[in-house]
Amino acid sequence: MIRFDSVTKSYPGQTRPAIDGVTVEILRGEFVFLVGASGSGKSSFLRLILKEERPTAGRIHVLGQDLRTISTRKVPYFRRSLGVVFQDFRLLSNKNVFENVAFALRVIGKSRGYIQSAVPETLKLVGLDGKGKRMPHELSGGEQQRVAIARAIVNKPQVLLADEPTGNLDPVTSAGIMTLLERINAGGTTVVMATHEAGIVDQMQRRVIELSAGEVVRDERSAGYAVVGETVAVTSVVGAVPADRAAIALAAVDAEADEEAEAPVAAPAVATDGAVADELVASIRADEAAQTTDAADGAAEPEALAAAASVADEEAAAQPAERARSKKGAAKAAAAEAAEAAPAPEQGADAEEESGTVTVAAPKVTRQGMRDAQPLYVEPEERDEVTDEAAEITAAATMPVEPLPAADAEGDADETASGPPGRPAVPAASKSAHLTLAERLGLRSPAGPRAGDDDQEVGPVK
Ligand SMILES: Nc1ncnc2c1ncn2[C@@H]1O[C@H](COP(=O)(O)OP(=O)(O)OP(=O)(O)O)[C@@H](O)[C@H]1O
Q: Of the residues 9, 40, 201, 212, which should be mutated to test ligand 1's pocket, given the most ligand atoms within 8 Å of the CB?
């Protein structure tokens, strides 16, 4: 489905290649995590698949096509088989949820009738039923990412590429997004996800391709974030404290599920200095409490998702029983284990405050420890059956794409490049700042920088 043969990508002005002699194959229906340090080449790998970048050497085949043989004019058609999700969501801030998803269909010339049925269906699939009229700023981060995922899958792509899709989300919301991505994958879509999030990778135990300085240094099936037996040093910043946040967040979900909102949540696994630690925990608790509703939505997943889930995935069927632990059990186990695993304060707690940012050095934990203490991902219960809907999605995803007549670009032409209000700026956006949204989504050929190109110009290229 995706094959790299001795692929090297060197950017002008860079001394070493971003991708260095990579040979790898990703099969239809796989769920692959792309991991590696910042700058190791993950985004470049995804951009090469999208044909946003050209390899300096080597060959790339995607969906049976040698990317070198796809002309620039044909790139938009090629990309219709690929859905893309970014860390910063990239929604059209002046369009409502429905229009954000419809946008992906309008630019490829789908009929009004098709859009009227496909969009609500997809919104239901991602758990946003009834939220079509909301504006992006009226949604939580997790909901905004669901809109972005809906937009990516509404065209029923065979491959979904996700570049740090949970990078701006808290652990509980991330867990909901991961559940959604797993369901999409179970419906037959190949998913390739670049991530830094060890907890997610450890929990899901899918194929892991690790890049280091552009080279594949590990390609392992059913793996975690780090090599077995290796310890993982986690340096956390307020707002992203993996181990304890996950345990607390899931305990909070549990508490709400039991309608015991006032019950105390689990103590953090990360030992910190007194005042800083207290402040940290208080902030985390407040944050998680605010997110609980979204988390519950995400973790529970609508029935439509269950219905859409799952063409037979032998690997998934063979998952160990431990992955099917209930949410409640997982949270409790995590809380207990996290409490037990908490090191003495002097071991892990080197907290400091620097220019307004509190940085906490988390303890070194084993891979097993992380997996046990971080139930970010909870396996869906036995609801995943092959259904007509799933079969329909898979069939539609494999249909050839017809060239389409000129599109109506009106109305959908304005996109603000900025991320959602109050969210951090995301470096990925700047990497391809010259691309319009339609180009980034693979709906239009990249035409390079154009004067006054802040506005979106959309429409298929014949
Ligand atoms: N457009 C570009 N021009 C020049 N160099 C680039 C460009 N894009 C990426 N690079 C360089 O290529 C290397 C790999 O970058 P890439 O963004 O692929 O890494 P990454 O693993 O995705 O990093 P991160 O996790 O921080 O997003 C880095 O050294 C980066 O500076």
A: 40
